[in-house]
Amino acid sequence: MNKKMRLFALLIFSFLVFHGCASKPPSQQENICSIFEQKSSWYRLANKSFEKWGAPIHVQMSILRQESAFQNRVKPERTKLLGVIPWTRKSSAFGYTQAIDATWDWYRDENNKPLASRVNFADAIDFSGWYINKSHQINGINKSDAYNQYLAYHEGHGGFKKKSYQSQSWLIDVAKKVKIRSDKYKNQLDNCEHKFQKKFLGIF
């Protein structure tokens, strides 16, 4: 195999590895039962985060659904230079959580998890529980209050305290959507959670 062929094979291999690492998002994302049926480990991980941080599963999942639609490598769109040329991205938000670099570093440092990754659902759901708990500690937001939890998640704890969201009607609309979905997720989970609990306990 000559040098060009080896290089081509390496590129193909790298492409396959990269795409193999990408996690296909679940379909029927408005049904949390369907999500957990498709992603067999997600209920266990979401429940682990709930037990650790006290953040309800339906609130965590509704926020992640809003932020990334459960896509593990999604990034913000690039800005356009002169309205045409792709330029820098709007922020460093990335992965399931859409957490920016500074917030993710804060989470990793505080929890002694230097290898935690925003493309890993286990880390992402733990982050969401941690952040919801932080919003409760810092801003006094009830962990079940999906509406205000999302506003604090989006604006940061300082922004929430300053009520920066009040000048952003679109953001308030999104927070209402997160609350509606969270309530729907809760009702759905009330009817199907026993199935996942049985699997989690090894009872079939």
Summarize the structure.
This protein is 63% helix and 4% strand. It is built from 8 helices and 2 strands; from the N terminus they run H-H-H-H-E-E-H-H-H-H.
What does this protein structure show overall?
There is one protein chain. With 204 residues, this protein is mainly alpha-helical. The protein has a domain at 30-68 and 121-201. It has helices at residues 3-21, 32-38, 42-53, 57-68, 101-110, 121-139, 146-161, 169-201, and strands at 78-81, 85-89. Strands 1-2 form a two-stranded antiparallel sheet. β1 (78-81) and β2 (85-89) form a beta hairpin. The N and C termini lie far apart (52 Å).
What structural class do you assign from the helix and strand content? mainly alpha
**Fraction of residues in H or I helices:** 55-70%
The helix-strand sequence is HHHHEEHHHH
Question: Spans of 5+ residues with little confidence (pLDDT < 50)?
Answer: 9-21, 78-82
- Number of helical stretches of at least 4 residues: 8
Radius of gyration: 19 Å
Beginning-to-end CA distance, first to last residue = 52 Å
How many E-type strands? Answer: 2
Largest sheet: spatial strand order: 1-2
Morphology: globular
